[in-house]
Amino acid sequence: MHLLMAAALAASTLISPQLSGPFSVGTFDAHLTDSARLDPFQPSKNRELMVTVSYPAQRKGQQAPWLAPGFATAADPILSSPAFLDVPAGTVNWSGTLRQARVDAPAVPGKWPVVLFSPGLQAPREFYASTADDLASRGYVVVTVSHTYESLLVEFPGNRVEFGQTDGSPETMKKVIDTRVADMRFVLDKVPGLHRWADTSRVGIAGHSFGGYTAGETMVRDRRFDAGINIDGAMEHTGDGGTYAPGEVVTKGLDRPFLLFGGDMGERELSHVDTSLTRTWADFWPNQRGWKRDVHLDDGAHFGFSDLQWSVPQIAQVTPERRAGLIGTINPRDALKAQHDYVAAFFDLHLKHRGTKLFDRPRHPGIRLVE
């Protein structure tokens, strides 16, 4: 027991970024069951989801853990492994690291627009806490979703943990995108019961990587979503070795606002003028009928659009080479500020109808507007 306690004390407790909006933020998790839908990955039972809600709140209560203890225990061997951070297990005190949001803090009354967020392929919703909390601090109800049996793992009440079980086949990838779209539509149905001040007449959707594809594809199939952001995600379900299979968002475009926000992979970039990583942004661009912009974060890597952007620089055991591969070489604070400001500016413009000049010319280090 003493050895375990010593190991916990030796683990690094990280510091999450301060909120940039005028509001403090409250948060809670919710367990949702879709009684009208069997789970495509476990067809013997109904689809279950875990979501996290972040919202403008009074500055009261305890700060929320970044990762719940059960989740942290199950995830640490995976996150620490050579395939990811490549650090000794137990290096990071995941559950001791706190978000800026406070558990069940009293809500600030108002009519707050709603934004739903979908994580990257196999990524947990917990790794987008700073994106959600920062947007909530600017006057939004933000709901992040874990996609069960595809996410790395999902912790349900009663310490039940469900691990991801997907492969990269084209058939599985088609099932994944269809399941994600159904998940997001179902969660929107449930939002009024989750938060009394949520204004579901103004709804945005965003996502990272495969979650960006999810955002676009959900907008194609559900007109309740007014505006969307794809953060560094190919919009296809081609799978490993499959024939090119772009989503309907690519082939049809949208008549509502959609932002592409890309980063780099080595010397290649994800943008509508570079098809080396995916053709989907280039194919989408001429089909998009609504407002569109392609914003690029130079020297920012794929996982830098998650909470790794602020956490990895605090983990001394991560090598410089691994750090650059995960979050790029851009100054982490510059990257985080740019991400938070552009996501908020987009939704402020299209859900709150507040003007912004961020899309007229770059105003942040590393930001480039792709013409």
Automatic annotation (TrEMBL):
SUPFAM superfamilies, per database record: alpha/beta-Hydrolases
Lineage: superkingdom: Bacteria
Entry keywords, A to Z: Hydrolase, Lipid degradation, Lipid metabolism
Pfam families membership: PAF-AH_p_II, Peptidase_S9
Residues of the Peptidase S9 prolyl oligopeptidase catalytic domain: 181-240
Record-linked InterPro entries: AB_hydrolase_fold, Peptidase_S9_cat
Listed name of the protein: Prolyl oligopeptidase family serine peptidase
Species this chain originates from: Lentzea indica
